Amino acid sequence: MAFARPSSFAMALIVASGAALAQPTAPEGERAWARIEQVLTSPRCINCHPASDRPTQTDAMHPHRMSVIRGPSNHGAPGLHCSACHQERNNAASGVPGAPHWGLAPRSMGWVGLSSGDLCRRLKDPAANGNRTVADLVKHMAEDALVLWAWQPGRNGRGEERKPPPLTIAELGEALGAWAAAGAPCPQ
Question: d(Cα 72, Cα 74) in Å, to the nearest integer?
């Protein structure tokens, strides 16, 4: 399954959305952040951004079956790496989800339990986010195949569709662009 990616032109518009338009104000940036937060705290994102070593799964965010843990490289424990079950694409027969480089976000990017402001600050902190700038974050969220999987999550093992995040990828791109162009403000 190919993941829908914004074109290079669309990405340029997302990253530079404020360049040709009036600069968004801080309140507009904070409204954009509130939309972004809806995505980041949805099960599709939060399951892979645990604050602990134990990921969750399903729309109900249950502890991952088989006592799966983070492991030393965020890809599972030795002998039970994420890729043992999670392949490059969803497995329609078993319902096991899959996308390129399946694994957990680094512990520094654990979001469970953070306030909106703390989540925003953590996301922007280069020491916690893999040394990414805001523009790098926007690009990561709009182009990374694992992130894009969230909008094509497939069916679970019971044949039920997994819920994608509450915004479309285009709506997330618009919100990211407005947030970045406003200076990426964070709520208190």
Answer: 6
